Amino acid sequence: MILCDAGVLLCLVDRTQPQHNAYKIAVIRLAKPLVTTWSCLTEAMYLALHRGGWQMQKQLGQLLLDKLLTVYEIQESDYSRLLALMEQYRDRPMDLADATLVLTAEKTGYRQILTLDSDFLFYRIGDQDSFEIISV
């Protein structure tokens, strides 16, 4: 499984994005399900609404229906870790969506990530392991 950030989700459905085709090809080539969080999907849906309206949001939703994208559920017991991560990386600053991806990596052991966000070069999984950013 490969973690997927909001920017890449938007890029997959927004044909005006410069890397749209590259990410579509990469996702097909990787042939692995993408994992995101509700925070990332919400961010992508918001951006999609403002870029392409309901049709672009529908394309994002279709990724879920086609099982190309799955959502990792954050538990209430994880809230304190999310806030600790956001405090730890407040100089970047880390937003909630990024914190949920770091937490997901900690909980699942997934290290590979599709992201447009260079902050994942600095974030650490369990405060020690780095992410493996998939180059596209």
Automatic annotation (TrEMBL):
GO biological processes: rRNA catabolic process
Name this protein carries in UniProt: Nucleic acid-binding protein
Domain PIN positions: 2-122
Pfam family, one: PIN
Record SUPFAM superfamilies: PIN domain-like
GO molecular function: RNA endonuclease activity
Coiled coil: none
